[in-house]
Amino acid sequence: MESLLRNWNGESVIIRFDRPSGAWIIIAIHSTFLGPAIGGTRMKSYPNFKAALEDALQLAASMTYKFAAADFPSGGGKAVIALPSSFDIHERPSLLRHYGTLLKQLGGLFQAGPDVGTSPADMDIIAETGAPFVFCRTPEKGGAGGSGKWTALGVFHGMQAVCKQLFDNESLRERVVMVQGTGSVGHPLIELLLKDGAEVLFSEVNQTAIQHFRDKLKLPFVPPKRVYDTPCDIFAPCALGGILNKDTIPRLKCTAIAGAANNQLAEPTDAVRLMKRNILYAPDFIISIGGAMAIIGIERMGWSTDEARAKVNSIKQTMLRVFKLAKDDHITTDAAAKRIVDSRLSRTESK
Ligand code: PHE
């Protein structure tokens, strides 16, 4: 645990135990360099406390990269609420309020939105405690609602950049896209893809969602164990991270990877593995900023939805820049994207 923290290049970690539920609340502040640390609230159970802490640290860093790459004036952080395996669902509202109280005490040092396992309705409960800067409340409570559709729009523009790069035509028409996870981002992404004429395959573990997409929309269903062996043009990971690794990469039968999941690479060398296999990888921290960017813009900076759309569209240009840099310098797209991030962070430093 100590080496985990020592090797992390972030600023601070706040940890609180919620005794009634047995959940751990972990808030990792990675960087406040470009602005206050902003990030989502991930709520799930982990095999142990260390795994939860590690996830929080990595996800917080990824938020710093996202904002820096998009030239957005926010720092990066993340909250992980690690539920015990025996979690009593009735404890959920009081756990959320406990988290809200902690955010309030922090006075804006960390500003929270939703993430895997939390929703706009949860943000309403958190904000009721008087916690400053809680993003994505429901429209009834004065918020802009969920960020998933905005993230999906950004992923879609990232995919257009992929198609431009590979086929010199940004249309998704007749491209075969496999979407892994049909949740708050995967679902609206599928709709955008179908509208543009793509052929969509999907993979999912939730039975209700499987029924919706397979039986109602008649989309081909890929069972989870076959995801990494199924041929497609673009593979879009929109579930959890760590899925691109030494075991899955050799099996992949796609031309490109472009999806919303955070921290898709299990380790940095996986970017090299993908490059060697000639698979074009759209770095997750470039392509998945749409949600946070649009919501912060609308709720905090007074953007109209049209302005938000235009900003989210800029992901396409950033992605093309990443691809060009990677090609020109013979480096991975991940390394190219990190170079842009580093230059933003150091450029501001020297101001
Ligand atoms: N879950 C979002 C992400 O990972 C975080 C976020 C959404 C933060 C909306 C603020 C507002 O990018």
Task: Explain what this protein looks like in three dimensions.
The structure is a single chain. The chain is an alpha/beta fold. It has 2 domains: 2-61 and 74-141, 3-Layer(aba) Sandwich (Rossmann fold), CATH 3.40.50.10860; 148-289 and 317-343, 3-Layer(aba) Sandwich (Rossmann fold). 44% of the residues lie in helices and 17% in strands. The protein has helices at 2-6, 49-69, 92-106, 120-128, 148-167, 186-195, 207-216, 269-276, 284-287, 290-300, 305-313, 315-329, 333-349, and strands at residues 12-18, 23-31, 37-45, 75-83, 110-114, 176-180, 199-203, 232-237, 254-257, 280-281. The strands form 2 sheets. Strands 1-2-4-3-5 form a 5-stranded mixed beta sheet, with helices on both faces. It has a 5-stranded parallel beta sheet with strand order 7-6-8-9-10, with helices on both faces. It is globular, with a radius of gyration of 19 Å. The relative contact order is 0.12. The model has no long low-confidence stretch (mean pLDDT 96). It binds phenylalanine. Residues 38-40, 113, 115, 135-136, 147, 262, 288, 291-292, 295-296 line the site of phenylalanine.
What's a quick, concise take on this entry?
This protein has 13 helices and 10 strands. It is α/β, with parallel strands linked by helices.
Total of domains: 2
Assign a percent range to the helix content: 40-55%
What's the total number of strands? Answer: 10
What CATH architecture label of the largest domain applies? 3-Layer(aba) Sandwich
List its traits.
single chain, 351 residues, alpha/beta, Rossmann fold, 2 domains, five-stranded mixed β-sheet, five-stranded parallel β-sheet, 17% strand, binds phenylalanine
